[in-house]
Amino acid sequence: MDQRIKATPVVAIVGRPNVGKSTLFNRLLEQRKAIVSPIPGTTRDMNFGHCHWRGEPITVIDTAGLDLTSEGATDEAMKRQADAAMHKADIILFLADAQIGPVLEDKVLGKYLQKSKKPVILIANKADNPKTRKQTEEPDWLKFGMGEPLPISAANGTGVGDMLDLLYDRIAAMGLGAKPMPEIDARIAIIGRPNVGKSTLLNRLAGEERVIVSEVPHTTKEPQDTLVTWVDEGGTERNVLLVDTVGIRKRAHVEPGLEGIGVTMSIGEIARADVVILVIDAVEGLNLQEKRLLGLALEKHPGVLIAVNKWDLAQEKKLGTAGDYKDYLATELRFAPWIPVVFMSAKTGDRVGKILGHAIHVAREREKEIPQEQIELFMEKLKKVHHSAFRKGENRPKVYGMTQIGTKPPKFMLVVYDKDTVHPNYLRFIENRLREEFQFDGTPVRVLSREIE
Ligand code: GDP
Ligand code: GDP
Fold first, then answer.
1. Cα(167)–Cα(149) distance, rounded to whole angstroms?
2. What pairing do the DSSP bridges indicate for beta strands 275-281 and 303-309?
3. Which one in 172, 181, 326, 426 has a CA-CA gap of 20 to 30 Å to 91?
4. What is the pLDDT of residues 183-206, one digit of tens each?
5. Ligand 1 pocket residues where CB is under 6 Å
6. Helical H runs in 217-338?
7. In angstroms, rounded to a whole number, what is the distance separating the alpha carbons of residues 338 and 306?
8. Quick one: what percent of the chain has pLDDT higher than 70?
């Protein structure tokens, strides 16, 4: 299927204090307030969120969080705000107050914005009624050199639809249209109980300076996956698809049988992933629900990574070192000791960027193919180990050879003389030896057996 993506256009709301930036931001986001979070801006934090108009997503940045005092912003502070917005946004909504009319501060800011090459749309907010709307036709507004302002009322919604139409026309004219889907390095499902920090992680990733986020629809309806593109330390462009991000945000569709676990993603969605990132709360540790969830996910044989989140809190509470924590998880995860553990703080952003790199590594391990001659060497070595690994009198299967018969996850076929002599323990022994030799970090490895013909 020729899936196409659209880089989600980024729109920044800029204006002096009290013109209604936050009010407009909240109106645009409406149901999606839950995903609002601070973005690490160049100088100060700002809020961002997603809004949809006619099924098309846009990312909206509210710069009201930048340090402007309501007593009268200094030019310096306003320039900082404008810089942050101009840096991140594709298009700028420049707000002024229709009831007060344009003032000197607006003009200073407007001039500064025009220096950027980004398109600026002049908005006269607080045009709540016909009388104030009429006032926006005064010639004074034309002094910005941006044409007539578009009157809206962020408070009662008047004109906001027209504003979004205009916005989308401009965006379309800028050529931010659909592009073919790039090659994906890994499809990732972020799973975990409520409150462990999944949406914080998602927002943090979306807010990273180096990262471009695009929404990918499965159908023509709402986007469900998020494409995250960035350039890694080696200068290579990486593409990671976060599956079912709507599920992460909305905490929707819990499959029967999973209610008790509070899973936000269906097993079907998990099956689309190459790698599952199980996010757990460092302070609460791994509980029974999570083990069950992991067990269910593993039935689909994805790569797995455990992200121990809220590591900042764990350190504050002096819960021990990362080494201690790994030991603790190793005892809990005896059934899958091959799962890598990474520590992070979605809230502070610490090591968040590394998670995707780890996930790509796991995806690579999962599709690894071992050349037959290396398998032969491995079998030679194995013969020597046999003597020490098996107690006297224990039934040791006579093995003819082994080949890799599949990837995603790696699958090996052991050819034996008599299948009855092959116990599950023996297959596990082979798996462990394979891991010692070829790593297979974070991926299940399947070892099957058949009798020689
Ligand atoms: P910001 O500092 O630019 O983010 O402005 P706010 O969104 O905090 O709004 C400043 C004040 O203007 C608040 O009291 C809002 O209720 C009010 N306000 C915002 N939009 C409108 C509007 O469309 N009409 C009216 N009458 N008041 C508004
Ligand atoms: P979700 O239900 O898994 O999507 O969890 P959220 O992302 O909504 O996070 C739940 C709560 O944990 C929120 O109050 C977050 O601010 C907080 N939180 C998330 N990540 C961290 C973190 O790394 N450290 C700390 N201290 N709190 C976090």
1. 13
2. parallel
3. 181
4. 899 999 998 887 888 878 877 776
5. 15, 17-23, 64, 125-126, 128, 153-155
6. 245-250, 267-271, 288-298, 311-316, 322-332
7. 11
8. 77
